[in-house]
Amino acid sequence: MTTPPERPAALRTELDRDIKESRRKAHRLELRVAACWWGSLLLGGTASLLGFLAAVPAIQNVFGIQPWWVSVLTLAAGGLVILRRKTCWRIKSDIFYGRERDVDRLRARLLYQMSAEVPADQLAQISRDYEAAKDRFGKRMLKVTAMVDEPDN
């Protein structure tokens, strides 16, 4: 028994949407990781440079570098490192990329491993595998979210 042609097309549309959304979310998380990394390097480097320049009397007379400026920049650089590590953005990004790969394999199976007339049982199997992939994703994300959350006391 074959399925009507609109059912495989609907599943393909859903898989395409899921792939696009997973890729977008993973990329957005990677941008956050990069912004924190480069921001912490920039702020830390600026703090070091200001610390060195504050010791030069000619520069100190012109710019009036205050010691607390160095402290604030160093604190901000450290804050970005802590933010990047505590939020687990890299791990979450990897999970989204994994979801994208899982769903892309299902899409490829639907497009390239099925005949033009997709049997209903094979379409149902792809749909079940898609639901299983979403469940795995949810469990992985829940595990990471539990790592980020503070324990209740």
Give a short synopsis of this structure:
The chain is an all-alpha fold and 153 residues long. The protein has helices at residues 6-54, 57-63, 67-87, 89-112, 120-148. The model has no long low-confidence stretch (mean pLDDT 89).
Please give a structural write-up:
It is a single chain. With 153 residues, the protein is mostly helical. It has helices spanning 6-54, 57-63, 67-87, 89-112, 120-148. The chain has one domain. Helix 1 packs antiparallel against helix 3 and helix 4 runs antiparallel to helix 5 (120-148). Helix content is 85%, strand content 0%.
Notable features of this structure?
85% helix; mainly alpha; 153 residues; 5 helices
Uncertain segments: none
Count of distinct structural domains: 1
* Coarse shape: rod-shaped
Question: What is the rounded distance between the termini?
Answer: 57 Å
Return the average pLDDT rounded to an integer: 89
Q: How many strands, what sense, and barrel or not for the largest sheet?
A: none
In terms of structural class, how would the helical and strand content be classed? mainly alpha
Share of helix, binned: over 70%
What percent strand? under 5%
- The H-and-E topology, N to C, reads as HHHHH
Number of continuous helical runs? 5
Please tally the β strands and state the result: 0
Radius of gyration: 25 Å
Multimeric status of the protein: single chain
